[in-house]
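Q: Two folds, back to back.
A: First:
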Amino acid sequence: MTMSEGVIYYATGEKHISEAVRSAESLKQHLPEISITLFSPERPTSSCFDNHISIQSHSEPLLDYISYLKETPYDKTLFLDTDTYICGDILS
């Protein structure tokens, strides 16, 4: 059985979704084959995400994103904050 690996972002609001797009684009520059999933209420316009999981934002964002982490579509997951800029291969 092949283990799936990927990166997830959790973003709500225009600012954080824009940050996630910039971060994911920088990740794809260095790791173009990595699968990236975005958990957000709105579907992003960028094609850098391989998957989008629509979520509902509640009053407790910290608890929300922790609860969504268990919904990862990957066997092995790297969670990145939306303001992370990737400058090289972070998986080697």
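A: Second:
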Amino acid sequence: MSVRAGIVVTGTEVLTGRVADLNGPWVADRLLELGVELAHITICGDRAADIEAQLRFLAAEGVDLIVTTGGLGPTADDMTVQTVADFAGRDLVLDTALEAKIAAILKSLMARFTGVDFEAVMAANRKQAMVPLGADVLDPVGTAPGVVVPGTPTVLVLPGPPRELQAMWPAAMASAVVQQAIAGRTVYHQETVRIFGLPESGLAETLREAEGVVAGFADLEITTCLRRGEVEMVTRYEPHSAEAYRRLMALMRERHGSMIFSEDGSLVDDQVARLLGGRRIATAESCTAGLLAARLTDRPGSSAYVAGGVVAYANQAKIDLLGVDPALIEAHGAVSQEVAEAMALGAVERFGADTAVAITGVAGPDGGTPEKPVGTVWFCVRLAEGVTVIRSLQLPGARPDVRERSTTVAMHLLRRTLLDEFGSLTT
């Protein structure tokens, strides 16, 4: 049986949603890298009884390691260390060496302020130097130390600020107590496949078929989700199940080969960035509020290939900023193939680009007509080599859904156009 772990994220601000939990997913990824199976992530408020209840729940689940995050500060609502000590049946003792380290950190932090009573501040922070008897102490990154409390299960107590927790993680993993707790860990492979143009129900049908024809399918842990209009399939497995995963992927390629655009986890955004190497792209958007340009520029080195973009909702803006002929708008409407083509040409000319993408559509909630209902979107990709690709789709959902799906469609249309014109993604 593999080593199992649980995570307890503490903090009323996290429980109530005022602060997003960044620590749970980060620690989960690190545990996966170590070959530790994550059983549960729980979130509870800053109440000793609730923290203890989570610890007892995870212990009853038979986990080997519990990782807690948060509740290590000097204030009254920071009670994780005391609660863990009580759970483990250990007294809290003052670590004088740790107290001296915290004092030195505080003096350095307070040097920039005047009129502050150091002794009063130190008295409040002395709480942070109280550790469970027999625990390993992890030196503070801020002012809060971490601790590793031996036992069954072992409890690793880490600070709440992500910067501090992440910086402390290597020292935590170097602890002999932690290493002993996870000594039986295995090796996991995790593969991510991304698919575009396939409904999640279509993938579910293929997986049901695979269950009956792929030997060892039950040993593959598969999760699927719809993300930004794409279906993502993440498969985790141990080395002995590699052949089962190979057979699953053979079936996937047979059923959905043309729709699978990534078998290595790469995003379409990253693939487009690679395909644009040496080119200059411009965007012209009406209905997507500049979200396509944002996706293109949200990649390292994007300034080398993104020339600029225009967001033009009003017809006059399309005329003035992109040079769209008013007669086209009058004859065909702003949401049309003709205007999408003119917007793409205008983006190329305005920014001196060799590649352009234009989007014009009805995102809603108002403005649709029987001929062009909400969700009607036209796309145009134009290359300086003379290639122009046009598509129109009827996208479901409210305004945010139409906008998000439109940018995803545009990225895939651009990817396919570049691949057809210039070749594969292989380097």
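Q: And?
A: The first strand starts at residue 4 and ends at 10.
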